[in-house]
Every structure is written in structure tokens, then in C-alpha cells.
Amino acid sequence: MVDGLGNWDWLRLQLLLPNPVLLHLSATKPPQSGFQEDFLGWARSPDRTFSVRTAYQALRDSSVQSANAVWKAIAGFRGQQRIKVFVWLLAKEKLLCNEERVRRHLSSCARCETCGAASESIYHIFRGCPIAVAVWNGLIKRDKWVEFMSLDTMEWIRGNLASNSSFAIDSVDWDLRFGAILWSLWLRRNAMIFDPDNIDLLAVSDRSLWLWKEMQSACALDGLARPNHESRADSLLSSRGSLRSSRAVARWVLPPRDWSKMNVDGARDHSTGLAACGGLIRDHEEFRIFVDPPSFIIPLLQVDCSTDG
Ligand SMILES: [Zn+2]
């Protein structure tokens, strides 16, 4: 395929290859007689030979560290526990989006109920659907928009939870806001499918904003507020450590003024199969009661308020 002068033999190649390949070939230097013959090599070793040691290093350096980073970021999430578990499911791509429901033969239609797109994937719910795009738009830095929209799910979650300033214009407690937006998008999507007649008209951005503020207040009360310049993952892990030590003795603590605390419990009788639950809601100076069923109100009234909930 090379002529006597060391150039590509275009007369022969034109007969064998299509034009796009010829154009690509023209930008490549032809093989020379002094060149070593091409062979497949292992990029992790300088001499291109494979070894278990370099393969193990490659594994540790990339996928394992990346996966560990996202789980640590989720574990350190300061918001509500149910949102933390939800984000964990999202990272594992275990949410039952319509695409997944069709794959499991739970549904025959993968369409997005919000915008009518043919396939509602996890990506579509949180980044592809017009509602999601409208929520993120204005919150994400312009120069980071393409990266924000194209990262794979795990890296996307890690990038937003572990660093408040990677993508967000307003970096104040972005990890909480990110979680609040994900949760609000999911609630809105579920309402569209399962309860369209009673869908909350509150916009996703307004709902997430309210949730974000609530979580900020709760974090401030729990002493989990952190300076924004601090590494989020590191600060959260250290704050969790201090929490563990402070929880060595658990007891019920009076909530601060303008806050209420709810303690619930339930039980089931194996012989009859009957179950019941009840609980107490107490503010900083008195308590109110909710029970289910109402006949449990007397036993609950006898609960000593000083005991643990
Ligand atoms: Zn959609």
C-alpha cells in the first residue's frame, strides 16, 4: 500500500477504500521500513506489557475511587434521611422510571407523562424533561451547563454533593438544594402518574426552595452548618463523627421555641394480626397527641413525657 518513495499508493487505495477513509488516511503518515511492527499494548505499563500489579492499580485509581467518592458524598448528605436514601437509589439507578417499569414488564408504556417524550429514563426525569431543564436553568453556571447535563449519574451526584461550587451559581448549601430539587422532581413526576387529579400546583422550584430552607434551618439547629469554602465531603464526615460521639447517651430533648418534635411507635400482635401505631407531637412547652386508632388515646395519655420516644 506504500509506493517506492514511502508515500501512500493512492491509485490502489482509491479502488479499495471509500472517500472518508481515504481522507482520514491522508492525515496519517505511511508506515516506513524502519518502523517496528504495530502490536496491541497495555497502556498502564511503560513497556506496554500487561501485569496484574498495574491492572490492580488502574482499578483502584479509577472506578473504585470514583464509586467510593459518590457513596461517601451521599452518606454525608445533611438533609432528610428519606432524601438521602432516595439519592442513593438514584445513584444505583434503581428508581422505577417508566423505562425501567417497561423493562420489568410492569408497564407497556415508557412515555413521560409530563412532556410526552417517548421514553422516560432516569436521565430524562432529572435532566432531560423540560420541567427539569427549567429548574436547573438559572441555577447552574453557564460554562458548566454542558458538563452538568452530560455527566453520568454517579459522577453527577458526586460532583453536586461533594462540592458546592462545582456547578451552582449560588454555592450556599448547594448540596441541600440539589437534594431538594431531585426530591421535588420525583414527587412531581409521581403525582403526574399516580394522582394527576390532585397534583400539587406548587412549582418544583418553589417546593424545592421551601424544602431547602427547611433543611438549612434544621442543619443550623443540629450544628451541621458548615462554611461554604470547606470541602463538603470532608466537613460532613467530620461532623458525622462528632455527632456519633455526642449520641453516646440518647435521651429526649425539648425542642426549641417555634419547633415541634414528633415521636412515633407501632406494634403488631402476631396472634390476631392486628396492628396499631401512635405518637406524640410536642412543642417547647406542651404536647399534643395524635393516635390511630382513636381508642388508643387513653394509653397514650398515660405515657410519661420524660421517657424516650
Ligand atoms: Zn418529560
UniProtKB/TrEMBL annotation:
The residues covered by the Reverse transcriptase zinc-binding domain are 50-136
What's the protein name? Reverse transcriptase zinc-binding domain-containing protein
The uppermost taxa in this organism's lineage are: Eukaryota, Viridiplantae, Streptophyta, Embryophyta, Tracheophyta
